Structure formats: C-alpha cells, structure tokens
Amino acid sequence: MTILDGKKTADDIKNEITAQVTIMKSNGEKVPHLAAIIVGNDGASLTYVGSKVKACERVGFESTMVKLPSTTSETELLNKIKELNQNDDIDGFIIQLPLPIQIDTQKVLMAVDPTKDVDGFHPENFGKMALDMTTFIPATPFGILELLERYNVETQGKHTVVIGRSHIVGRPMSILMGRKGFPGNSTVTLTHSYTKNIAQITTQADIIITALGVPNYLKAEMVKDGAVVIDVGITRVADDSTEKGYRITGDVDFEFVSKKASFITPVPGGVGPMTIAMLLKNTLLAREQRKARN
User: Fold this and answer.
1) CATH number of the domain encompassing residue 160
2) Residues of the chain predicted below pLDDT 50
3) Number of structural domains in the chain
4) Active-site residue 30, yes or no?
C-alpha cells in the first residue's frame, strides 16, 4: 500500500512554482497576483483564505485579501467583483464560499471574468473542461489528477466510482476521469444520495473517489483488494482527547480500508494541501495567459 502524500507533493509543486517566479523576477516581469474575496467572519473560511495568502507569500506571488462584512448586499459584492475584473494588476481571484443567504452564489460566480476565474467555477471554464479544451480546472479535482499523475497510478481502462456529485468535486471528477489522456481513459460511475446499493458498485471499482463529507462512510467491506482510494472528505469530529477538542476525519475508514488499498490518500495531508497548490498553479497559468494576450 502506497500513501498518496498530498503534503509532500504540494510542497514539490510550490518549489517548482517558486523557481518559475524567481526567473520571472530576474527577467523583470510582473509576478502573479491572486486576490481573494471573503464575505463575513466564518472561522473555517478565514483560516482557509489565510492559508492561501501564506502560500502566495511562500512562492513569491503578490496577494490581496478583500474582507467584506456579512451584511454586504449582492449589489455591493457584484461591484467589488467588477472592480477586480477591471484591475489589470490582478491575474486571478477567488470568492470564498459559502456566501451569506442574501447573496445568490450562482449569480456571483457568473460575474467573475472567466480569464481570472482561477477556481474554475465559471460555466465557460467548466464547459471548456468538459470539452477537453485548455482551461482552469477546479483546484481540488486538479490536485487529484496531479497526485494520480505524479504517483503514476494507472487509470486507463479502469473502473472509477465517484461518490458525490457536487459542482466543485464530484461532477468535474467524473468528467476528468473519463477524458482522453492520462490521468483519464477510465469508465466512470457517478453515485450520489439516490444511488441504490452503493456498496455493490464500489466493490467493483478499481478507483474510488469519495467527496461526501460523511466521516468514515467508506468501509473496508465496500472496497476490493488493490483498489485506489481518494478521500476528499474533511469533517471536524468532536474529540475531547485532543487539544483543539476535535479531529479532522475523512470519508474513508482509513485504518481498515488502507489494509486493502494499493494507493490511498490520508486525511489530513492528502487532497487538502493539493487544493491550495493547484490554485497557485492556476494563478501562474492566468498570469502567463494574460502576458500572451497583451
């Protein structure tokens, strides 16, 4: 069994990006600039955006955090997005989700300039991804592809089962694993809350990608020997024995499933660190594309 070490792989990617930024600086070029909009004071969102800002510092990017109060109206947020769209200094920006209830998330994501949409959520970028065209791939699916590629996990002709159909992970993953090329060329089954007999389907899978957010959902008896298991789930579970009072748990019952898997991602330290690394990679791509257009 091989652990797909997202922490180490993300560090490798950050080092590669740092080297590219160093060359850009020595050539007197503008370095990539990532902005993040956060509405409200959600603790997890603030921590996540903070880690993105730190990651930018580490690789030599410029970064801007735009903090707006939870009472911000949809119109005010749309005006801020318009401002970032028109700011030539910003190469890419993200809007931290979830947004407060008074704001229509879909409307907001639609307002982002697709050439700056480094989260890959805009329908134009999602459509291009579905058509195998060059575009921004959502950071978490992009991170999973990168892990599979760097660990040389065979995907061609394999049966991939995706659990969960969110627009952020499940749906894009099902498209990407079925695309031509590597990683891809697998036969994909997309399962969700209405799928009957999921265990019957997962036991036939060569690759399982689970993004449900249900702690320890995938049990050893649901997995065949030698399967590749990618765990995207991250849930805080109360645990008084820890200093923080909780522990981070994935969708996979890691202790027992890892005994059967050929490759498996841990939680934490698997897919999570890859998400931020690929966001940086998308921002570098956005900078290069802007340079080519100008």
Assistant:
1) 3.40.50.720
2) none
3) 2
4) no
Grouping H, G, I as helix, E, B as strand and the rest as coil, residue 61 is: coil
- β-bridge partners, 264: 3, 229
pLDDT of residue 8: 98
pLDDT in tens, 31-48: 999 999 999 988 878 888
Q: Which of 80, 96, 117, 281 is catalytic?
A: 96
Residue 104 domain flag: yes
Told to judge if 86 belongs to the known catalytic residues of this protein, a careful annotator would answer no
Exactly one of 52, 80, 158, 281 is catalytic; which is it? Answer: 52
52 is catalytic: yes
d(CA 44, CA 38): 11
Instruction: Give yes or no for a contact between 161 and 131, defined as CB atoms under 8 angstroms apart.
Output: no
Give pLDDT tens digits for 124-157: 999 999 999 999 999 999 999 999 999 999 999 9
**Residue-number span of the structural domain to which 255 is assigned:** 139-273
Phi, psi of 67 (to 5 degrees): -100, 125
Give a yes or no: residue 203 inside a domain.
yes
The pTM of this model reads: 0.94
